[in-house]
Amino acid sequence: MRSGFVASFFSIWRWSFGLLFSLSFMSHTVADSTPQRIVSINLCADELLLLLADPEQISALTKLSHDEGASYFRTKALTYPTTTGLAEEVLPFKPDLVIAGEWGGIQTVNLLKKLGLRVETLPLANNMQQVFSNIELMAELTGHPERGTRIVQTMQDYLTRLPAVEANAPLAAVYDPNGYTVGPESLRGQSMTLAGWRNAGELAGIRDYGSLDLETMVRLQPDALIDSPYTLNTYSRAEALAQHPALRGTRLNPQIISVPSNMTICDGPWIVDTIASLQRERLNLATQRSTK
Questions:
Q1: How far is CA 146 from CA 16, 40, 186, 264, in A?
Q2: Which of 275, 282, 290, 273 is nearest to 15 (CA)?
Q3: Terminal-to-terminal C-alpha distance of the chain
Q4: Sign of the alpha-carbon dihedral angle for 209, 185, 175, 216
Q5: Which of 116, 162, 236, 282 has the fewest CB atoms within 10 Å, i.e. the most exposed one?
C-alpha cells in the first residue's frame, strides 16, 4: 500500500513566519552592517536564505535551487540568478557576503577568502538542536535575528507537545537507494522518533548512517518503509523491496511512506511538517490495524 505524503500538514511555522514578516517590514530599518549582496553557493544555504533574508538582499543562489526535487523554495528561487558555485561566477555579483556549506566547494571558498570576500559556512545539521542553530545563524548573518528567534520558538513549542515513543510503537525503516538508512543520531532518525516510530536502523545497530540488507529487513520485519524518491510518483525502491519474494514469503506487507526529497535534503522549519506527517501516517496505520 502506498501512502502519499502531503507537505502542508501542520504548517505552524508558515503562519508564524508570515506574521513575523508583516511586523518586521513595518518597522525594519536596514543597518549599515547588514549585507545587501548575498550569494549562496550551497543548496541548504539557499533554502535558509530564502526563508530569512529580505528578497532584495539576495544576489544569487545555486543552480540546484531551481530544481524541484532538491529545493523546497523552488518557486521563490526562480526569481534569482544562479551559479554553479565557481569563483569566476560569484565575483561579478560583487557580494558583500558569500555563504557556503560545510562540505564541498573548498577551493572556491579559499579563493574567495584570498580575494578579500567575506565567506561564512553553514554547518550540516544532524539533529534538531543543530537545525535551530542553523536558523539562528542564518538570521544573524542576514541581519534579522528576531526572525530566527521567532521561527525557532514556534518549532520548539510544537515539538514539546509531542508524546514520547511507546514501547509497542510500530517499527519503520528509512529505505533509500542501495539500502541507505539512518539511525537515531541523524536528523531523519530523530524525526522518526519524534513522530512516534521505532527505528529499524537503530535495532540493526546503526547509530547515524548505514545500510540495511535484505536479511536484516526480513529479520526485523518493519511495519513501514520510508523512502524519498527524487520525484514523487516515480520509481520507489521501498515499493520494489516490499514486493521482493523473500519479504512476500514472510507475509510482510509494510506501509510505504514517501517523503519528498526537497524536504529531506536540507534542514529547516519544514522538518516540523515532516514530523507531523510521519505522525499522521503512524496513526493511520494504527487505525487500519484496529479495524482488521
A1: 12, 21, 27, 26
A2: 273
A3: 15
A4: positive
A5: 116
Q: Is residue 94 part of a domain?
A: yes
Contact 6, 141 (CB under 8 A): no
The amino acid at 21? F
The one-letter amino acid at 193: T
CA dihedral 148, 151, 155, 158 (to 10 degrees): 150
Kindly report, residue by residue over 24-50, the tens digit of the pLDDT. 443 344 445 899 999 999 999 999 999
CA distance 59 to 41: 11
Strand arrangement, sheet containing 58-62: 82-83, 58-62, 38-40, 97-101, 119-122
Domain with 227, as residue range(s), is: 2-8+165-290
Question: Among 86, 110, 143, where does a domain finish?
Answer: 143
Question: With helix as H, strand as E and coil as C, how does 74-101 read?
Answer: HHHHCCCCEECCCHHHHHHHCCCEEEEE
Question: Per the domain annotation, does 158 fall within a domain?
Answer: no
pLDDT digits (tens, 9 = 90+) for 56-110: 999 999 999 999 999 999 999 999 999 999 999 999 999 999 999 998 889 999 9
β-pair type (171-174, 224-227)? parallel
CA–CA gap between residue 170 and residue 32 (Å, rounded): 53
Q: What is the pTM of this model?
A: 0.84
